[in-house]
Fold:
Amino acid sequence: MIDFGNSYMTFFSRNAGNIARIQLDAACTLTDATSDASETFYLIAPCRAERMYLDTQLFQMPNYEFSGIFSDRECLLVRTHWTSERDNREYGLNRGRFEDVHLDIRTFAAARALGDATAIVAATLENRPLVARTELSLTDRSARVMLEYPVKTMNVLREPPRFQVDTGPLILPAFASTAERRIERFELAYVVYNSFDRAEFILRTPVALGNGAGARPLARTTDYSVIKMVAARTEIVCAE
Structure:
């Protein structure tokens, strides 16, 4: 079980430039159904566009969100602007785009699965770190998908014992994507569920704002706006 609060991606810019250590937000492991070969991709925590090491204003304007997805070999840098027309994704090899990239994945020394709502309520109210694993199958059954992510927001009822996870961001394979590379076939999402056998995702996509001439939108922005409900198998794990 990944200890996300103590796991990081660190990139080293070229020519002794900036070094950035960024906490991990989520992981997704894709396992080929035929060969059983697997690859894990990690979502880094978002930050904002900034100028480095100046004595004047540091935030860039207009500003944008910077995030990214990393594997052992590749990266996808994701920039989300005020208007979706300016959004961009930059693909690269880790040691081509940067001088070096380190993925430092730490795990909890001891953990146990929480098998029912009563155990989840108790662990939540004891303020235990919670991590969820949600397993999905691609519609063509070509691969298995294992999402792993910290449960940042957990809702519970004492009586009768109930729970509801609402957390993110995480990365979800874009099942219909025709992008050339696997790392380019992810969408950012949040997830909600209150049982172990299904999950409801809301995906981050461009959204039309208002109506202009000819019923065309005045602008488009990128936000969580498309809902996808899927059968899933989730396990919630508690750090001891």
About this structure: The mean pLDDT is 94.
